[in-house]
Amino acid sequence: MSELPGDDGASALIDAAVADALAERGFAVALEFLARGEIASLRADAERRRAAGEFHGARVGRGAAAQRDASIRGDEICWFDAPRASAAERALLARLDALRLALNRELFLGATEIEAHYACYAQGVGYARHLDRFRDDDARVISLVLYLNEAWRDEDGGALLLYASPEASEPAQEVAPRGGTLVAMRSDAIAHEVALARRERFSIAAWLRRRA
Long-range CB contacts (< 8 A, 24+ apart) of 67-75? Predict the structure, then answer.
């Protein structure tokens, strides 16, 4: 099962279902990972940070070789962590940490930490097909995407295309970026891309990481 409905009182059930789907297919989609009020607070924090100039153009690659290439990815991002987080951001990080513990228990991941950033895709912007794990760094174990968009329609585009393997020619599933939906995927195995959006699109990308 890849689409997993949930509610505020069923976090443990959601986490268990995510673990089952990850074990079976390498990815999972939880349609209501957070409540609407929590999503609205995170979206407000994202817009506040953007207005304050905290977002910057995302780069491709890492370290000194990283560069801006809008033909590959055109999103703007803003990293955040617990020491400088808002109340809503701290609550999200705590919720993701509970998911980390559940996945460690069920899948023996050995993930020890979380990193997260906001991402904003302007109209006409996407992200080409890629894997989230660097060739020389296997710290990222599970990739997570949480969507912050209200009233998103299919015709707005911006879907996340999930490929069951790096070699797959057709996506196994397309996920609309509707607010509250969480996607989890194995960082080393599930290639994915962001289709061009026809309106501004906000999300949070996060990774469960293990020690190098």
Answer: 70/125, 71/128, 72/127, 72/128, 72/130, 73/126, 73/127, 73/128, 73/194, 74/121, 74/122, 74/125, 74/126, 74/127, 75/119, 75/120, 75/121, 75/125, 75/127, 75/194
